[in-house]
Predict the structure.
Amino acid sequence: MTWEPDLPGVLRLPSGRLLRGRGVRRPLPGGPAPEFGLYLLGDPPDAVPWESRWVRWRDGWLPADREDARAAFEEVWTRAAGERVEVACAGGLGRTGTALACVAVLDGVPPDRAVAYVRDNYARRAVEMPWQARFVRGFR
């Protein structure tokens, strides 16, 4: 079962897959719980009652291990075909937006359009740092 497209923070990819982005500093939004979560934080996240994966990613930077991040983005894209998947960092914009843009590339959005796609369809302030935008443009 996937997300409802009108829930806050839900991004619809061109394929129709739905992902929820959020900031873990904020309360968990209403609606159903995720079935899988990808957490992009400098330190291991708090335990959650659903399956999850952590990618070490300091605030304002890029993933510590780019191959691990790519594998996590591929898992998010695959799982989103039939599961409720959320992608989250502390604030829900920089790292989350960058990851969502990379998943959008996996879904067929051209790398040079993925940041704009996420800003138009998720949050206008997503992908906060210029090097995060470059990371997405170079993501294949």
